[in-house]
Amino acid sequence: QVQLVESGGGLVQAGGSLRLSCAGSGRTFSIYVMGWFRRAPGKERESVAIITRSGGSTYYADSVKGRFTISRDNAKNTVYLQMNSLRPEDTAVYYCAASSWGGSYAYARPPSDFGSWGQGTQVTVSS
C-alpha cells in the first residue's frame, strides 16, 4: 500500500485556477497508475483524470478535457492536477488514488480499481 496526501485545494472564483498535489510515501511510487477523482455534494464519486506509470498516457473525463491537466514526477513521488478555467460545477472534494495494475494506455476506470486513497481536498468554485 502507498500512503497518499493531497494538498492545494481552496476557494477560487469561476475562471480561476488551482493546482492540486498528491504526495505518495511507502512503496515505490512509479509502480502505480494514478488517478484523480471527485465527489460533489449529492453525487457519486467520479473519475476526473488518470495517468499511467510513466506519465506517457493520460485520460480525462469529458467534463474537464481541455481545462485540467494531470502530470506526475516520480522522482518526487508526486502527482499533480492543474485545473484551469474552473467552473462552479467543479466544486467537489478531490481525491487522488493509486492502482497497482494497469498498462501503458490510460482509460476511464472505476474507483473500485484503485486500492489506495488520500483523504481528499476541498475545491470550491464561486460564481
Commentary on this structure:
There is one protein chain. The protein is mostly beta strands. The chain has no helices and eleven strands. The protein has strands spanning 2-7, 10-13, 18-26, 33-39, 46-51, 58-60, 68-73, 78-83, 92-99, 116-117, 121-126. Strand 5 and strand 6 form a beta hairpin. The model has no long low-confidence stretch (mean pLDDT 95).
Short description:
This protein is mostly beta strands. Strands 2, 4, 5, 6, 9, 10 and 11 form a 7-stranded mixed sheet that branches. Strands 1-3-8-7 form a 4-stranded antiparallel sheet, with no helix packed on it.
The backbone outline, from C-alpha atoms, is globular
Q: Please report which band the strand proportion falls in: under 5%, 5-15%, 15-25%, 25-35%, 35-45% or over 45%.
A: over 45%
Uncertain stretches: none
Overall pLDDT: 95
Pairing-aware structural class of the strands and helices? mainly beta
What is the CA-CA span between the terminal residues? 39 Å
Count of helical regions: 0
- Give a count of the beta strands, DSSP E runs of length 2 or more: 11
User: Helical amount among residues, as a percent range?
Assistant: under 10%
Helix-strand topology string: EEEEEEEEEEE
Q: Gyration radius, to the nearest Å?
A: 13 Å
Main beta sheet: 7 strands, mixed
